[in-house]
Amino acid sequence: MLDDRAKLLLKTLVERYIADGQPVGSRTLSRASGLELSPATIRNVMSDLEELGLIASPHTSAGRVPTARGYRLFVDTMLTVQREQMATPEFAPHQLVPDQPQKVISSAANLLSSLSQFVGVVVAPRRSSVFRHIEFLRLGERRILVILVSPEGDVQNRVIFTGADYSASQLNEAANYLNAHYLGLTLEQVKERLQGEVEKLRGEIAALMQAAVTVGTEAMSQPQEEVVIAGERNLLAVSDFSSDMSHLRRAFDLFEQKAQIMRLLDSAGQAEGVRIFIGGESQVVPYEELSVVSAPYEVDGQIVGTLGVIGPTRMAYDRMIQIVDVTSKLLGNALSHGK
Fold it and tell me: Which residue ranges does the record assign to the Winged helix-turn-helix transcription repressor HrcA DNA-binding domain (predicted)?
């Protein structure tokens, strides 16, 4: 356990290092902390903090920098965050407009990146194979556009070529029957039921429905972009990376391994609110120079995905928490209203 003096000195050291990026010496610490302590006393406290693994001395520098363990203690017990409201001037111009889910998710990733000046990541909701609405549009002789709308508002369009030519009234009849009798079922379930109800339906209409459901099943089952990443180039302007190309290469390797990012953010989605993963403290974020601030987002009260900011371990965590917290609410609202 640290006493109040040691806590204040650690908090001051972390804040100065985040702000300046330079190892913090005892003289700087004395001025910044406001404590009336002798340089010898401060050096003794720093020595104790170093023995506890909370700070370290890089190379031959007289100053100290926080370790992963020091950052963890800082964000868990010393960080005070003023929760931003969506009406504040900074966030007001960035409202996410309800649209097709994939567009909203891309906009959210770009918003996280532009506000943080780091990397924005959004894990998209799993695509549903349930359809909310189906329409048929005649494009020409024996060519029909099938329009499928999922419960999340995702729209899939596919063209089918039919053996017979259908009139507009026949297309309306088929769409109305599907919308009235199969709403809320998966396309696989609709396909099975149609096979059992072919006798009730006129042959040409049944054939049209089966063709539409087959192509719809293929469309809905196609892999979507599950992880959307924006702003990787922002890291080129971060001194922690630009001064060491090996750090930059490791960061870009992580962005290419989207499965690893998904596992990381999926674990964040199991908890409510914002979570912080400090680089190097576990295998969750294996690189010491990277940290992740993440939060789940909800649609109609249900957690459906996760988003976050990936940046240097030396980041302004209080500000990242605000950005991630507000963006998760903006994304949830946009997806809910876009349905």
Answer: 4-73
The Cβ-side half-sphere exposure at 175, using a 13 Å CA radius, reads 20
The residues with which 24 forms a beta bridge, in sequence order, are 64
Distance CA 49, CA 67 (A): 10
φ/ψ (deg, to 5) at 241:
-100, -40
C-beta separation of 324 from 300 below 8 A: no
Q: Global pTM?
A: 0.71
Contact status, residue 128 vs residue 152, Cβ threshold 8 Å: yes
Residues 28-49: tens digit of each pLDDT: 898 888 888 888 899 899 999 9
The three-point CA angle 146-181-128 to 5° equals 55
Q: What is the pLDDT of residues 83-129, one digit of tens each?
A: 544 445 555 556 687 777 888 999 999 999 999 999 999 988 766 66
Report all structural domains of the chain as residue ranges with CATH numbers, in order of start. Answer: 4-78 (1.10.10.10), 89-126+223-337 (3.30.450.40), 130-200 (3.30.390)
DSSP assignment letter at 24: B
Q: Where are the beta strands (DSSP E) in the chain?
A: 55-56, 65-66, 119-123, 133-140, 143-149, 155-161, 227-230, 275-277, 290-299, 302-312
Which of 2, 18, 9, 10 shows the shortest CA–CA distance to 291? Answer: 18
